[in-house]
Amino acid sequence: MKAFLMHPDRDFGSVPTLANEQELRQDLELDTVLEAMAAGDPFLLDVARIGLLSPLVAPEEIRFRQAVLADCLAHPEVIRELYALVLTSVRDEKRQWGFFWRESPESIASGALSVLRFFLGGLRELRAFADEHGQDFASEGLIRLFTMLRSELSDDYFAEVEQQLATMRLEQGTLLSARLGQGNKAVDYVLRLAPQLSWRDRLGQLRRPPSSFDIHPRDQASLNALAELKGRGLNLAANALAQSADHIKSFFTMLLTELGFYIGCLNLRDRLEEFGAATCLPEPCEPGSAWRSGWAPPSSVTASTRMASG
Fold first, then answer.
1. What pLDDT does 18 receive?
2. Nearest CA to 69 among 2, 138, 134, 3?
3. How far apart are CA 57 and CA 73, in angstroms?
4. Which end of the chain has fewer CB atoms < 10 Å from its terminal CB, N or C?
């Protein structure tokens, strides 16, 4: 899943290092604009800086972003509510887990399962938000976002994810398979789905199988060997879980970042209104076309011109 609220076809990236950034910010008095957009929030300050120092050039990209901004200006409370929802999920996840240990396949799988279970609640909230407010917006960016949330996060999707997460808890033990390789060493370990047992089978399990054995709690070498064996079987599944967790975290982080730019724009609009300043969304033209047609710029340009084109 991708947010795509700042660009029609790519994520909102980091700003390249500019050798003359300080001079540019001073000449254009961007620090005043940045402070108004951030409203005291360091995260919004960083997002606003990236947005303003990565200006758009293509008119179609400017129109795309202006349309999203127009939606945000028309429904500021709804956008702030969405931003708060995503912010809560991101902050709570960092507060509770921060990152999961990657020392062993078992710890990777356990950490990834915790992250996935946590963000599953956030995804449900996003789906409910899209159902309630998705029809209120007219811009391509927000329509696409809410359409994606409703289609990708279906009831069937949540049911399947819940089932997969329950299976990966391995409450019935760890069932592995392998084959003999060179030198009769076990290779190609695969984690298998434990079979669903009937009540008769469960009763049968109460009797100790003749091929079973116990490891003494103080036999650390055997316990380590068993853990290594289990880790080989869990490796592929653990990596897949970790990639899924990273993907969902990246989606929430990018959505927070891109919404943050528009929250900054709302803050700037509110600040300008306090001073009675007018704002507008200018009509972008192809570079040089307006000058060739004899158009002359007005004597003053409002701050929102710079805000909308980012």
1. 73
2. 138
3. 22
4. N
